[in-house]
Amino acid sequence: MTLKRRDFLYLLTASVGAITAGACQASGNNVAQASPSPKSTKVAQTPGPFTLPPLPYEYNALEPHIDARTMQFHHDKHHAAYVKNLNDSVSKYPDLKNVTVENMLKDLSKVPEDIRTTVRNNGGGHLNHSMFWEIMSPKGGGEPTGAIAAAIKQSFGSVDDFKAKFNDAGAKRFGSGWVWLVRNKAGKLEITTTGNQDSPFSDGNYPIMGNDVWEHAYYLKYQNLRADYLKAWWNVVNWAEINKRYEKAIG
Fold it and tell me: Are 94 and 161 part of one and the same domain?
C-alpha cells in the first residue's frame, strides 16, 4: 500500500465514518500531495462563541508515536469541523452562546431538541479534543507522579495494571469512540468508554484523561493495529496536565 493510497483511504474513512466530515473541504488528491508544515498553522475560525484551540506543539512534535500528517488532519480538519458545526447549531439560539459546552453536555435535556444531537456530537467532539491535545506532550511518557499516581495505584493496584486495563478497554471499544479514566459519580476512579464523540460529562462522570480510538486518530501510521497505537500512546502522555485535571476533579 503506497502512502498516497493510504491517505486516500484515510479521507474516505473520515468522509463516511465521521459525523462532521461534511464540513471538511480538502480533496483526497490535494491532501495526498501536501506536506504538513512542521508548525501548527493558523486555522480560519468560524463565527460563533466557540473557537478551535491551537495545538500546543508542532505537528511533528509527537513523532514517532503520532505522525505529523495525522496531527494536521486530526486538528485542522476534524476538530475544526466540530467547532464549525457547533457554532452553526447554536447560532439561532442566542442564549446558548453564553453556556459552556461542558454545561450543555451535562444536561442535554436543556438543549433545544432540534439541535440536541448536533450539540451532543460536535460539542462532545470539541470538548474531547480540546482535552486530548493538552494531555499529550513531546516531553510526555514515563510514570505519573503526585496525586494521580497515588490514586491510580489505590484504584488499580499498579500503574502497569492500570495501563493494561485502559488499553484493553480501548481495544475492545467497537467502532469509533474513546477510552477514559474518569472520576465517577461515587467519587472513584473508573475506566470506561464512550461511543462516537459522547462525553463522560453526559453520564455524570469527570474525564481525567482519554484516548481517541477513532480510526482517524491512528490509521495513517498504524492502519488496523489499534492495540499498537494504544501501547505507543503512553510515550506522549502528559502526566503533569492529567494530574491538574485530577486535582480539579476532586477539588
Answer: no
Is the pLDDT score of 22 beyond 80? no
Nearest to 12 by CA among 30, 27, 1: 27
Segments of the chain assigned E as strands:
177-183, 189-195, 206-212
Q: Are residues 176 and 213 in the same domain?
A: yes
Give the cell for residue 53. 484551540
* pLDDT at residue 40 in the model: 52
DSSP 109-144: GGS-HHHHHHIIIIIHHHHHHHHHHHTB-TT--S--
CATH number for the domain harbouring residue 92: 1.10.287.990
* Mean of per-residue pLDDT scores for the chain: 87
pLDDT of residue 95: 93
